[in-house]
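Hello forum,

I keep getting stuck at the same step: I have a sequence, I want structure tokens, and every attempt I make locally crashes halfway through. Rather than fight my setup again tonight, could one of you with a working pipeline run this one for me? It's a single chain of 159 residues.
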Amino acid sequence: MKYNAYEIIEMAKKIEDNGSAFYRMAAEKTTESKAKTLFEDLAKMEDVHKMVFEDFKSYFSDEEWTNMNFDSDNQMFTYLKEMADTVVFNLKNAERDLNEINTIDDIFRYAIEKEKESVLFYLGIKEIVPEKLGKDKVADIISEEMKHIAVLSDAWKNY
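Reply #2:
Ran it on my machine without issues. Output:
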């Protein structure tokens, strides 16, 4: 099974949606205003990254999208959505895990771990995406996800 750039972008957008929801849950969990603001800002960053991924679509013409292994019965997209929901920032697990987390430090550790998982996930996907189907766009997604880790790490150190 090969993934094309469009499919990867759709998956990335779903992961970003889940990440945004996770950070909003983290913001609701904390009562400290500084931490709440930080997690709300991280949720907004996830929203921005979703828009960045949507912009990746402009790199291909309508004809190129049409010729890229289009999934007429949506089975691939259903499968990818499920993967995005369960591989990184699984919201059911995140909600349960956040209920068990007692400190801001633990939230930072959890968030950084999830961001690392997303980078590893995209690195694995990058290996199976052929150059002609948008391997360079997957590399761009990886770069965006690595920025999340840096922001979280810096914020945690400065917290």
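The longest helix spans residues 5-29. If your local run keeps crashing, start a new thread with the error log.
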